[in-house]
Amino acid sequence: MSADGFSPSPPPGARADWTIDQGWDRYSQAEHEVWITLYERQTAMLPGRACDAFLRGLDALDLHRSGIPDFARINDELQRLTGWSVVAVPGLVPDDVFFDHLAHRRFPAGQFIRKPDELDYLQEPDIFHDVFGHVPMLTDPVFADYMQAYGQGGQRALDLGHLAHLARLYWYTVEFGLMQTPQGLRIYGAGIVSSRSESLFALDDPSPNRIGFDLERVMRTPYRIDDFQQAYFVIDSIQTLQDVTLRDFGSLYDRLAVASDIGIAQILPGDTVFTCGTQAYALGGGRL
Ligand code: HBI
Ligand code: FE
User: Fold this and answer.
1) Where is the Biopterin-dependent aromatic amino acid hydroxylase family profile domain (predicted)?
2) pLDDT tens sequence across 118-145
3) What is the residue range of 65's domain?
4) Do residues 95 and 153 lie in contact, with contact meaning Cβ atoms separated by under 8 Å?
5) Is the confidence metric ipTM above 0.90 for this complex?
6) 266: in domain
């Protein structure tokens, strides 16, 4: 939604809710090969790095078969497991449209796939990020409920003028979340699991801070959209996410309205610190 409160209209060919047909038959062989390349790269490195729920979901959905998956096939299984479905969209959709889909257990996924010369970085979420990154976690019943609650909360955050705060929760959990397990830190965030370089950086690099998840703390922390994160937040279990959404965000938003943001690389006295990062990567100018 734009600042004046009106959403732009869907592009030509899209429905009122911004969905389009996936048009699975129209993907070229070259596009299927991009999927297969990315799929093989990520699945080779994710055991021992991604959390069990993600790896189980990946297995359950059998996402690699013949390249880019057909949403109709994924949805049979996903519907059965958690009642979610994947719908195709042309790219980024307005916030209110995005939240409405999530609130109805539909995940909007980009229909297109990145070009072979941009395997590692892209501006808009494509089908590999959206389907490989996000959909496996939607097979977990608790995570599935969290995502729906997030969509419902999104509609309220827009009304209350606190979208920027809620978006940080999404960013630091759904996109870039880490989880503490008896076997060590694991990835569950879609932005990490769908990226080879960030799957290494987020777990192994000494640069970023890794801090125990705290809802209010996260909502006060800005994030980077153009490079690796300078802070990652660590949950104990998926249940933590569901518990968070049981709270009423109204009083939280009132406090946040007068609270200052926390520096992106700052560590506070109350933080549970997994890693006090060197920030060497960001101080060195990152990849830009
Ligand atoms: N659209 N397709 C798509 N994917 C997103 O992740 C997305 C979006 N529109 C808005 C949006 N995300 C953000 O509003 C939230 O994540 C906060
Ligand atoms: Fe995403």
Assistant:
1) 1-288
2) 998 777 899 999 999 999 999 999 999 9
3) 24-283
4) no
5) yes
6) yes
